[in-house]
Amino acid sequence: MARIHEAVCRLCRRDGMKLFLKGSRCDTPKCAFERRDVPPGMSGARRGKLTDYGVHLREKQRLKHYYGLMERQFRRYFQMAERAKGNTGDRLLSLLERRLDNIVYRLGMAQSRAQARLMVRHGHITVNGRRVDIPSYLVSVGDVIRVKQRPRSLEYVKRVSAEAQRAVPDFLERSDGDVPEGRVLRLPEASDVSIPVQVQLVIEFCSR
Protein backbone atom coordinates (compact mmCIF):
# COMPACT_ATOMS: atom_id res chain seq x y z
CA MET A 1 0.00 0.00 0.00
CA ALA A 2 1.38 3.40 -1.00
CA ARG A 3 2.06 5.85 1.81
CA ILE A 4 2.82 9.56 2.10
CA HIS A 5 6.32 9.74 3.63
CA GLU A 6 6.54 13.52 3.63
CA ALA A 7 6.13 15.40 6.93
CA VAL A 8 2.38 15.98 7.04
CA CYS A 9 2.68 19.41 8.68
CA ARG A 10 4.37 20.58 5.48
CA LEU A 11 1.26 19.51 3.56
CA CYS A 12 -0.94 21.79 5.68
CA ARG A 13 1.46 24.69 5.15
CA ARG A 14 1.63 24.07 1.41
CA ASP A 15 -2.17 23.84 1.10
CA GLY A 16 -2.67 26.97 3.20
CA MET A 17 -5.14 25.26 5.51
CA LYS A 18 -5.07 23.18 8.69
CA LEU A 19 -6.03 19.67 7.55
CA PHE A 20 -5.87 18.04 11.01
CA LEU A 21 -3.50 15.33 9.80
CA LYS A 22 -1.92 14.79 13.24
CA GLY A 23 -5.05 14.45 15.34
CA SER A 24 -5.10 16.15 18.72
CA ARG A 25 -1.66 17.73 18.15
CA CYS A 26 -3.31 20.07 15.63
CA ASP A 27 -5.34 21.65 18.47
CA THR A 28 -2.27 22.46 20.57
CA PRO A 29 0.40 25.21 20.37
CA LYS A 30 2.72 22.57 18.88
CA CYS A 31 0.80 22.73 15.59
CA ALA A 32 3.32 23.72 12.90
CA PHE A 33 0.69 25.48 10.80
CA GLU A 34 -0.19 27.82 13.68
CA ARG A 35 3.47 28.62 14.33
CA ARG A 36 4.47 29.10 10.69
CA ASP A 37 1.57 29.45 8.27
CA VAL A 38 3.66 30.03 5.14
CA PRO A 39 4.43 27.48 2.40
CA PRO A 40 7.49 25.27 3.07
CA GLY A 41 10.78 26.01 1.39
CA MET A 42 13.32 28.84 1.50
CA SER A 43 11.18 31.16 -0.63
CA GLY A 44 7.82 30.15 0.80
CA ALA A 45 6.99 33.56 2.26
CA ARG A 46 8.01 35.36 -0.97
CA ARG A 47 6.02 33.35 -3.48
CA GLY A 48 3.79 35.35 -5.78
CA LYS A 49 0.14 34.98 -6.70
CA LEU A 50 -0.97 31.57 -7.99
CA THR A 51 -1.93 31.20 -11.64
CA ASP A 52 -5.37 29.90 -12.59
CA TYR A 53 -3.84 26.44 -13.09
CA GLY A 54 -2.16 26.69 -9.68
CA VAL A 55 -5.45 27.58 -7.96
CA HIS A 56 -7.16 24.53 -9.47
CA LEU A 57 -4.21 22.25 -8.69
CA ARG A 58 -3.99 23.43 -5.07
CA GLU A 59 -7.69 22.76 -4.47
CA LYS A 60 -7.31 19.22 -5.83
CA GLN A 61 -4.17 18.59 -3.79
CA ARG A 62 -5.84 19.93 -0.64
CA LEU A 63 -8.74 17.47 -1.00
CA LYS A 64 -6.37 14.61 -1.81
CA HIS A 65 -4.15 15.31 1.21
CA TYR A 66 -7.16 15.72 3.52
CA TYR A 67 -8.27 12.13 2.83
CA GLY A 68 -4.72 10.77 2.63
CA LEU A 69 -4.94 9.54 -0.96
CA MET A 70 -2.36 8.99 -3.65
CA GLU A 71 -2.93 10.38 -7.15
CA ARG A 72 -4.05 7.10 -8.72
CA GLN A 73 -6.57 6.50 -5.94
CA PHE A 74 -7.98 10.00 -6.29
CA ARG A 75 -8.33 9.63 -10.06
CA ARG A 76 -10.22 6.37 -9.57
CA TYR A 77 -12.75 8.09 -7.30
CA PHE A 78 -13.15 10.88 -9.85
CA GLN A 79 -13.88 8.34 -12.59
CA MET A 80 -16.45 6.62 -10.36
CA ALA A 81 -18.11 9.99 -9.65
CA GLU A 82 -18.20 10.81 -13.39
CA ARG A 83 -20.03 7.57 -14.16
CA ALA A 84 -22.57 7.99 -11.34
CA LYS A 85 -25.86 9.84 -11.74
CA GLY A 86 -26.15 13.37 -10.39
CA ASN A 87 -23.65 16.15 -9.78
CA THR A 88 -20.08 14.89 -10.22
CA GLY A 89 -18.66 17.07 -7.45
CA ASP A 90 -21.27 15.96 -4.90
CA ARG A 91 -20.78 12.31 -5.85
CA LEU A 92 -16.99 12.66 -5.51
CA LEU A 93 -17.22 14.10 -2.00
CA SER A 94 -19.77 11.46 -1.00
CA LEU A 95 -17.46 8.65 -2.19
CA LEU A 96 -14.51 10.07 -0.26
CA GLU A 97 -16.58 10.41 2.91
CA ARG A 98 -17.80 6.81 2.60
CA ARG A 99 -14.29 5.35 2.90
CA LEU A 100 -14.06 3.09 5.93
CA ASP A 101 -10.96 4.81 7.33
CA ASN A 102 -12.77 8.16 7.13
CA ILE A 103 -15.87 6.73 8.84
CA VAL A 104 -13.75 5.34 11.69
CA TYR A 105 -12.17 8.77 12.09
CA ARG A 106 -15.49 10.65 11.94
CA LEU A 107 -16.90 8.31 14.60
CA GLY A 108 -14.12 9.43 16.94
CA MET A 109 -12.49 6.00 17.09
CA ALA A 110 -9.17 7.43 15.85
CA GLN A 111 -7.35 10.74 16.23
CA SER A 112 -6.51 11.06 12.55
CA ARG A 113 -7.32 9.37 9.26
CA ALA A 114 -3.82 7.93 9.14
CA GLN A 115 -4.40 6.29 12.53
CA ALA A 116 -7.83 5.07 11.39
CA ARG A 117 -6.23 3.55 8.30
CA LEU A 118 -3.77 1.59 10.45
CA MET A 119 -6.57 0.40 12.73
CA VAL A 120 -8.47 -0.96 9.74
CA ARG A 121 -5.39 -2.57 8.22
CA HIS A 122 -4.52 -4.27 11.53
CA GLY A 123 -7.96 -5.83 11.86
CA HIS A 124 -9.36 -3.79 14.76
CA ILE A 125 -12.59 -2.91 12.90
CA THR A 126 -15.55 -5.00 11.71
CA VAL A 127 -18.41 -4.06 9.37
CA ASN A 128 -21.70 -5.88 9.98
CA GLY A 129 -19.85 -8.43 12.13
CA ARG A 130 -17.24 -9.22 9.50
CA ARG A 131 -13.63 -8.10 9.75
CA VAL A 132 -12.72 -5.64 7.00
CA ASP A 133 -9.06 -4.69 6.62
CA ILE A 134 -9.43 -2.53 3.49
CA PRO A 135 -9.33 1.22 4.33
CA SER A 136 -10.94 2.13 0.98
CA TYR A 137 -14.01 -0.05 1.63
CA LEU A 138 -17.14 2.01 0.88
CA VAL A 139 -19.79 1.82 3.57
CA SER A 140 -23.52 1.76 2.78
CA VAL A 141 -26.64 2.90 4.60
CA GLY A 142 -27.36 0.66 7.59
CA ASP A 143 -23.81 -0.65 7.93
CA VAL A 144 -22.66 -1.17 11.52
CA ILE A 145 -19.00 -0.34 12.18
CA ARG A 146 -17.80 -1.96 15.39
CA VAL A 147 -14.55 -2.47 17.21
CA LYS A 148 -13.45 -6.10 17.15
CA GLN A 149 -14.29 -7.88 20.40
CA ARG A 150 -10.83 -8.60 21.69
CA PRO A 151 -9.17 -6.93 24.70
CA ARG A 152 -6.34 -5.35 22.74
CA SER A 153 -8.67 -3.69 20.21
CA LEU A 154 -11.18 -2.49 22.81
CA GLU A 155 -8.53 -1.04 25.09
CA TYR A 156 -6.83 0.75 22.20
CA VAL A 157 -10.00 2.31 20.78
CA LYS A 158 -11.39 3.39 24.16
CA ARG A 159 -8.12 5.14 24.97
CA VAL A 160 -8.05 6.89 21.60
CA SER A 161 -11.74 7.88 21.84
CA ALA A 162 -11.19 9.49 25.24
CA GLU A 163 -8.47 11.68 23.71
CA ALA A 164 -10.30 12.48 20.46
CA GLN A 165 -13.52 14.03 21.88
CA ARG A 166 -14.88 14.81 18.40
CA ALA A 167 -18.49 15.59 17.46
CA VAL A 168 -20.06 12.86 15.30
CA PRO A 169 -21.67 14.11 12.04
CA ASP A 170 -25.41 13.62 11.68
CA PHE A 171 -25.14 11.00 8.91
CA LEU A 172 -23.58 8.69 11.52
CA GLU A 173 -24.73 7.41 14.89
CA ARG A 174 -22.33 6.30 17.60
CA SER A 175 -23.03 4.05 20.59
CA ASP A 176 -20.59 3.96 23.49
CA GLY A 177 -21.02 0.68 25.30
CA ASP A 178 -18.79 -2.22 26.20
CA VAL A 179 -18.02 -2.45 22.49
CA PRO A 180 -17.97 0.97 20.73
CA GLU A 181 -19.86 0.95 17.45
CA GLY A 182 -21.37 3.28 14.88
CA ARG A 183 -24.11 3.06 12.27
CA VAL A 184 -24.45 4.76 8.89
CA LEU A 185 -27.84 6.52 8.91
CA ARG A 186 -27.64 7.95 5.39
CA LEU A 187 -25.12 8.48 2.64
CA PRO A 188 -22.90 11.52 3.27
CA GLU A 189 -23.43 14.66 1.22
CA ALA A 190 -21.13 17.46 0.10
CA SER A 191 -22.26 19.56 3.09
CA ASP A 192 -20.95 16.87 5.49
CA VAL A 193 -17.30 17.48 4.52
CA SER A 194 -15.66 19.18 7.48
CA ILE A 195 -13.34 21.52 5.54
CA PRO A 196 -14.29 24.23 3.02
CA VAL A 197 -13.63 22.95 -0.48
CA GLN A 198 -14.44 24.40 -3.90
CA VAL A 199 -15.18 21.07 -5.51
CA GLN A 200 -16.01 22.67 -8.88
CA LEU A 201 -12.35 23.69 -9.21
CA VAL A 202 -11.36 20.06 -8.56
CA ILE A 203 -13.76 18.80 -11.22
CA GLU A 204 -12.50 21.34 -13.75
CA PHE A 205 -8.89 20.34 -13.06
CA CYS A 206 -9.54 16.59 -13.34
CA SER A 207 -11.58 17.07 -16.53
CA ARG A 208 -8.70 18.71 -18.44
Report on the architecture of this protein:
With 208 residues, the chain is of the alpha+beta class. It folds into 2 domains: 8-96 and 194-206, Ribosomal protein S4/S9, N-terminal domain (Ribosomal Protein S4 Delta 41, Chain A, domain 1); 99-184, Roll (Structural Genomics Hypothetical 15.5 Kd Protein In mrcA-pckA Intergenic Region, Chain A). Helix content is 42%, strand content 8%. The chain is built from 9 helices and 5 strands, in the order H-H-H-H-H-H-H-E-E-E-H-E-E-H. The protein has helices at residues 8-15, 32-35, 52-66, 71-83, 88-97, 100-106, 113-121, 151-164, 199-206; strands at residues 125-127, 130-131, 144-147, 172-175, 181-184. It has a 5-stranded antiparallel β-sheet. A hairpin with a 5-residue loop joins strand 4 and strand 5. Helix 6 packs across helix 7 (113-121). The longest helix has 15 residues, at 52-66. The two termini are 28 Å apart. The model has no long low-confidence stretch (mean pLDDT 82).
